[in-house]
Design a protein that fits this description.
Elements: E1 5-7, H1 12-23, H2 25-34, E2 40-44, E3 47-50, E4 55-58, H3 72-84, H4 95-108, E5 115-119, H5 122-137, E6 141-145, H6 154-159, H7 163-166, E7 176-179, H8 186-189, E8 195-200, E9 203-204, E10 210-211, H9 214-226, E11 230-234, H10 248-251, E12 258-261, E13 273-277, H11 279-287, H12 300-337, E14 342-348, E15 351-356, H13 361-372, E16 374-375, E17 377-378, E18 385-388, H14 396-412, H15 418-422, H16 455-458, E19 471-473
Parallel strand pairs: 4-16, 6-7, 6-8, 8-11, 11-12
Antiparallel strand pairs: 1-19, 2-3, 3-4, 5-13, 9-10, 12-13, 14-15, 15-18, 17-18
Helix pairs in contact: 1-2, 3-12, 4-12, 5-11, 12-14, 13-14
The structure holds pyridoxal-5'-phosphate (PLP).
Amino acid sequence: MSAAVESTGPDARTVLGRVRAHLSPGLALVYGMNGAGAVESCGDGARIVLSDGRSALDFGSYAVTLLGRGHPEVLRAVRGELESMPVSTRVLANGTTAGFAAELVAYTDPGRLTRVWLGLNGSDAVEAALKLARLATGRTRVVAVEGAYHGKSLGALAATWNRRYRQSLEPLLGGVVHIPADPGAVPGAFAEEDVAAVIVEPVQGEGGVRALPSAFLAALTAAARAHGAYVIADEIQTGLRRCGERALSVAAGLRPDAVLFGKALGGGVQPLSAVVATEELYGPLATDPFVHTTTFSGHPLAAAAGSAALRAVEELAPRGERLSGLMAEGLRRIAHRHTGLVTEVRGQGLLWGVEFGPHGAAGDVLLELSRRGLVVSPCLGQPEVIRLLPPLVATDEEVEEALDLLDATCAAVPDEFRSAARNASDDGSAPRDRLPEDGALTGPAGGPGTGAEGPATARHTASGASVPGPCRVR
Ligand SMILES: Cc1ncc(COP(=O)(O)O)c(C=O)c1O
């Protein structure tokens, strides 16, 4: 099916030029390569449409678009709020925000996690939870896990494992130790009695889609409890049915003192994160609500989106189970067909990682996938792994299409594109070795003028769906 897209925005070259001039030259380079010179225009369901009329399946977006793009109930809720009270006075109570807090409490671990602090980014939630733990205990030490990713703001960064993001900023928040995900390493972390909290992702998403062993999680949480330290479950990526459960830590009976949500919580429409905590951990904020505030905490537009998102996620949960099965089966098939190139596939629910053996192959595959019509995410802490994050709204056919694209791309490694890809850029001038060495920003080029945008991309056309906003699919 062919379709044309009319965009009323600036052309792609202008957009990329502005990114290069005013945001980041490195990002301009990467965006240009990923889009083969095009930029994102609009999206609908599991698909996005690019400025040159191509469409792509969005199985990436760093786990934000769990409900796809433009979920109608989320849009309806946000539009309603937009017309009434889009920002709060912050000196009066807001019904939408209070209602969402009550819904989130009922959703997560009713009766136990009864308090909510709202932020916009995942790292906001991490900061708030770490501050609460320190205030509530009067202690300073935090135990985190090797491979962890908890964000890049200064406090959260101290709990993030990857030295690449940390080393030039040290000393960071003091007292954070990282231990291996091994039950044997747990007692040593509590040798000193001043641990305020442990912070842990049940599945490390940015760390390469690694599920932490249940024996380790049990040992860590038991030791925390025995030593009077709080357990913070960072489910910013795994929660809200991304991994099948509302919160993996709650479902596993770990009884966390706080569950952190983010990413998909705003329904793929608004930025939103949350700390859902026990009365005890939340105590310092109950005593003094000004001990941790931000201007947009509890933003009504985001809260409206969050309420609609919780309902939508639950309605679609059975669909997630089916799609998870398709992903598991398809990825295993692909791993089998491309042994050597693909060294492992792992994941659960709608969070899947594909690990590549040859150095640099993951970046090459990620770029080629986006040129062929499948957007996936890299792993910020594990450059040899790409993440596939299908939305709950994907059809069976869209999942099969994504798996076929991955299969075909793996079959094309390395001959078809690797050499051409190494030297191109968004404007054909910057070599690959000028790229930042970030997992998110590596990969070969395939920009305009490389000739790479021909047959591989032509077979992916717009979905034909009616897309609201500044561009229309005809
Ligand atoms: C588990 C986890 N925690 C925290 C964060 C930080 O979230 P944000 O980038 O929204 O600040 C992320 C982001 O990837 C994450 O995956």
